[in-house]
Amino acid sequence: MFDDALLGEIRGRFAHVEDCPFTGKRVFFENAGGALTLNKVVETSARFAAIPDNQGRDNVASKALVDVIDKAREDARLFLGAKGGAVVVGESGTELLFRLIRDACLGAGPGEALGSTVEHPASRSAMARWAAQAGREHVLIPHDDALGQVTPEAYAAHVTPQTAVATVLHTSPVTGMGMDLEGIVAAIRAVAPECFIIVDGIQHACHGHIDVAATGVDGYVVSPYKMFSRHGYGIAWASDRLTALAHDSLVGGPAGNWELGTRDTGAYATFSDVVSYFDWLGGQVSDAEDRAGRLSAARTAIHAHEAALCDAMVHGTGNLTGLADLPGVAIVGGADNPAREGLVGFWADGHGSADLVTALNARGILTHMRKADHYSGNILTPLGQADCVRVSLAHYNSLDEVRAFLTAMREILG
Length: 414
Description:
cysteine desulfurase activity; 2 domains; Aspartate Aminotransferase, domain 1; alpha/beta; single chain; globular; EC 2.8.1.7; Cysteine desulfurase CsdA
């Protein structure tokens, strides 16, 4: 885990770490719904919101904006481990998943579309719509309900030489489990080497490693508001061969251009702020001499810190009993699951999840309820659950905050 001094520095770089601007002091365990925002992102957003100039004009300010955008695209490539391809800023992560999946479904050769039941509706709905529009069968691989994930072996059992497009969820925002992306992609490529593979990395991006070049995917999408930036934009990377397919663009416009209309330069700039933060953190926890090495070191340290917090939440710390040993509590994905990434979902017999969230909120601990609706029904319905409580962590959370949560749970459950 981070030592107290470094954790204090980390927390000092974020807005509203300990207090809500509306309700006062609280513990923020709702990071999967949207992480806290870097103070630098807030400053950058305000600065760029005041600039009247647009890109592509013959003046100094306009050229400076283009430089900001070019830098952000290179920062995004570095963050995602991309070589070549296109970095695309869009309306949101969901919108970009729809666009990438649409173009792959409409542009790929004949064959079926492959996905899994663990996926968030952003990718699953996009594949269902555009596979149907392209006349493709949409094959859904059942995920492992007990583990809350889908495995490379499951993909291997369903992929065929006719699989033309595939989607993969990197980490589930409901179970909290990360998938073996490299293994899944290898299983697909072994049978269908030309398959277009699109990854939903929205939940994973602030918790673990990303290397699109090493995994060999064709598209990867993130939502910056879940990785310490702000709402209002999404970022995708599209491979050269995905970019070469037909997609929405202006007649006579630049070849390979994905973006429609003038995007907010401040969005690009705030993503550079995020990458700079990871770079700074990597320098605190390693002696890496280049940015790529520092980003990798930061992610390793983040993963280790969050794993320790999750372990304390599940199994307890000091004299505080963990969720796994509290009466009537069941944990989504099981208590001991090495795939867990900064999120614990649970329910308690005899206590409604909504009531638990309300009771925790009354004690200054912000969590969230997931219902068996169009967002989470694919996970909860097979478990026979109408809802669950989601406690989602980030690396700026502390062991003291976990202790406060466990103390509150002991009081609530009696």
